[in-house]
Amino acid sequence: MENVLVAGANGTTGKKIVTLLNESQYFTPIAMIREESQKEQFEKDNIATVMGDLEKDISHTVKNIDKVIFAAGSGGKKVEAVDQDGAKKMVDASKSANLKKFVMLSSMGAENPDKASDLKEYLQAKHNADVYLKGSNLVYTIVRPGSLTNDKGTGKIKAEGSLEQSGSISRDDVAQTLVRSLHDDAAKNATFEILEGETLIGKAIDSVS
Q: What is the CATH number of the domain that holds 108?
């Protein structure tokens, strides 16, 4: 079993990721949280937590960690401090700790933020974080979903390096894609966009590897 740190564990998608990892036969989740009050919801399910604030030093959070999923976000409030610089801090910490893989939850549109009519600042922050990860020498997977919905997941997606279209995808399927991407041979050093689709998630990830 590999220990996986989930940055952004208390978010809507983050909680789904933690649940999937907790049910996995390969991974053990460690939920990174910012408030003591967030501990109980995880610890009642015997899920370990670690306190960490992406605006401060987080080097301690990767101790005894094998891999990381970065699913943290500021909700548009502190895009530079959290979505960009917080992600860069996590990349640096992961590199120092020789983590085996870094899975980044990015966003469709992050490849060319200048083309965006709205969310430009957010997409630029995501773009900068993605570029930083790619240049880190860490083994990585960068997943860029379309608009997130709270619909029930189907276990099927459409995945390509660039989909040339907009659309949506359920948080359930995004969480599952991120967890599947943790495997050593899955989408190694690959960046891809995902939308709802007809291809089983595992097969879709294999196609972009």
A: 3.40.50.720
- The β-bridge relationship of strands 156-160 and 190-196 is antiparallel
Q: What mean pLDDT is predicted for residues 5-31? A: 97
In the predicted structure, residue 64 carries a pLDDT above the cut 90: yes
How many distinct structural domains can be found in the chain?
1
Cα distance between residue 66 and residue 80, in whole Å:
27
103 is in which domain, residue-wise? 2-208
**Dist. CA 6–CA 117, nearest whole Å:** 31
CA distances from 163 to 83, 146, 160 (A): 23, 10, 6
C-alpha 22/C-alpha 189 separation (Å) is 25
Beta bridge partners of 5: 30, 68
- pLDDT tier, 23 (very low <50, low <70, confident <90, very high otherwise): very high
Catalytic status, residue 132: no
Q: Which of 26, 122, 132, 140 is catalytic?
A: 122
